[in-house]
Amino acid sequence: MAALTPSAPGRGTAAAVPAGSATRRRGRPRLWRGLVGLVAVVYFLGPMAFSVLFTVDVPRKGFTLSSYTGILGAPGFWSSLRLTLELAAATVAVTLLLLVPALIAVRLAASRLRVLVEVLCSLPLVVPAVALTAGIGSVLRWGPDDFAHTPLFQTFNAIQNPDFPVVLLLAYVLMALPLAYRTLDAGLRALDLATLVEASRACGAGWPRTVLYVVLPNLRGALLNTAFLTLALVLGEYTVASILGFQPFAVWIVSLGGSDAQVSVAVSVLSLVLTWALLLLLAAAGRGRAQRPQRSTRRAAAAAPTVRETS
Length: 311
Prior knowledge:
Blueprint lengths: L6 H10 L2 H38 E2 L3 E2 L2 H4 L7 H32 L5 H13 L2 H18 L5 H7 L7 H24 L3 H10 L4 H12 L1 H17 L2 H6 L4 H9 L3 H31 L3 H16 L1
Antiparallel strand pairs: 1-2
C-alpha cells in the first residue's frame, strides 16, 4: 500500500501536465488533413474547372453555354453513345457469364485449377492494347481471303458490322478479364461459399436457384464493382476502336475535337461527371448492402420450403 500511495499523484500529474500539448497534437493532424484535402481538391478539380471555363468562355462571345446546348445536336453523338452503351452492357453481361460460373466451379470442385484460371485472366495485362489490336487486325485481314469459299466468310463480315462490331465486344471482354477476375475473386474469398451452397442444397434447392438466390445476392458488391470497372473501361477505351476503324463514344469525342474543340471538351466534362455519379451510386449501394447483411439469407430460407413442397 505504501508503494502504491505516491503513484496516484504521479498519474494525476502526468495526465494534467500534457493537456496543452495534447490539444496541439490533436490540432496538427487536422491541419495536415486539411492541407492534404486542399491539395487533392486542387489536383482533381483544378483541370476540370479550367475545362469548364474553356467551354463557357468563348472568344469574342463572352460567357455562353452554346458548347453544352450543342452537344445533343452534334452529328454522330447519339449513334456513338448508343453504340458505346450497347457494347458496355454486352461486355458486362459476357464477362459475368464467363467468370461467375467458372470461379464458383473452381472454388467448389476444382481448386487445383485456380492458378491456371488466374494466369489466363491476367494475360491481357501482359499484352499491350496496341499489340492486341495489331493481332486482331491481322486476323481480320487474312481471314476473308483464306475462308472466302467457306461459311466462315460471312462470320468474318458479321463480326465487323459497324452497327454492332462483335470484334470490339470480344476485345473489351479480354481487356476487362483481369479487373473482373480480381474483383469477383475478392468477393468470393469473403464468403464461406461451400457452407452456403451445402446449406442451400440440403434445403432442396437446385443449382440454378442456389446461384440466383444464395450466391449472387452475397456477391452483389463484387458484381457492382465489376460492372462499374467494365463500364468505365468501355466508356474510355480509344486505342482498339480507333485502330480497327470503329467510332464509339471515345473515338467520336477525339474526332470532334478537330472540328469543334469546345464541344469536345464539354462532352468530356459531362462524361467525367457521369462516371463520378456512377461511382457514388456504387458506393451508396455498397453501404446499403452492408446495412442489410441478412437479407439474402432470409430470402434463401424463404425460397427453400417452396422448393421442398414442389418436389
